[in-house]
Amino acid sequence: MTQSTASPDPSLQDMRRHADPLGDATIARILGDWPAQGWPGDDAPQCLRIAEVNRLFGEWTDNASLAHWQAPSTVLGQEAAQALTDYVRQAQVLPPWADLQKIQRAERLFMDHGALSCILLFCSSLPECYVLPDLADVLHTAGQLEQHTEYRIRSTAAMIFPVMMRGGLEAPRGAGVAQILKVRLIHSTIRNLILRGAPAQALQAARPPLPALAVSAARPSLYQTLFARGWDVAGCGLPCNQEEQAYTLLTFNYVFLRGLRRLGLGLPQADEEAYLHAWNVVGHVLGIESTLMAHTMDEAQALFARMQARGRSEAIAPDPRPALGAALMQTMADAIPWPVAKPIPVPLTRYLCGRDTARDLGLDRRMPLASGLLFWSVLLLARGIDTVVRWVFPRFSLSRTLTRALGYHFISRVLMSQTRPLRLPEALLNQVDAVVNGWSDDPLAPAWLNRLEDRLTTAGSWSPGLARANAPR
């Protein structure tokens, strides 16, 4: 459990006791009360209803499918079905402050940066996501991420792609809102399982910490693992609380933009603020309070620093973060075909995230000298060439070409494998495939630089589109 080692941030401390009233009330209506004697078994009514909700997620294929959707009562029962129907009707509505032009501008930015965004997801957003000890602990329990790192990566991509592809948030044929509503309800389900009931009950002042339960099964289900883990609301707040969700949101918008800056590819202020805005709309649909959203990079930087300082004031034993960091780095190393370059994700993550995050994740250890020299030589040389050449060709960026090439390897090996397709509806999966294949050429680079990138991406890689086309159905 978590123990405080410094004075907490009062405002953020309060947000740890807030979660998602709509999502939590929906899941409470669907599941009802858990038995008091302990885990009721995988065939309990609550587990059958969770399984049915997961099955019904398959009907949310795009935003248009949500418009008049109603949950059947065959398995859920009338009350639970009505709860799910009410949730879809309320949660799909975008906030009145959503700016369509800014959203479309953010979509274009995502498409323009293409495979580069994958590097920033792997080496910046996800590592920063593991920094808060309580959040890392819940992620560890929910996914056993040391053994299933790709699951976390692929689940994240299954939301990011639909959200940021053209029309994802506002068009009927887009699928961003549909994917967000699934993620939001999954968060509420995790909370309900860990707390063994609704958060409102867990917040009662007199309620003692929930003890961990013995697990007799050799391979317990995810539901049983979450139910049995134990939780101290007084010390840890609610699992997947408002602060943690807002922090995660910042890793997708602020940390992405910060990564571009650190690679020498920073965007104009209006573009940065459009990207922040689009993800704030995502945050609203996820149930994040507007007071925890940042609208400028300065606001985002300050809020992110406060959240990390609050998180680092907590000590947790055993600390899950180094194992999560090591598993993430190994997943990336496995996707790199050149032996000398396999350790490169470690110094790249250090460079993008900074020393404190590297230390939190156990990435501050010594690495092979040859790999370290390769990374810093290439980085400094690329940044130096970019600085000089841009005086003549303003759109030139060798740094962008190299990181895009590395990103394309990760996309092909981890995200677009035909043996482990993203968990998306078939039509949406085909759209994602088309988008990724469209990233083979950089729209911001001259033709000769695209030819250089083609040579890099074909060295030991493969085409996800071709693999999918030849895959057995």
UniProtKB/TrEMBL annotation:
Species name: Paenacidovorax monticola
Superkingdom classification of source: Bacteria
GO MF, one annotated term: oxidoreductase activity
ER-bound oxygenase mpaB/mpaB'/Rubber oxygenase catalytic domain ranges (all copies): 149-367
UniProt-recorded name of the protein: DUF2236 domain-containing protein
Pfam families: MPAB_Lcp_cat
Transmembrane stretches, start-end: none
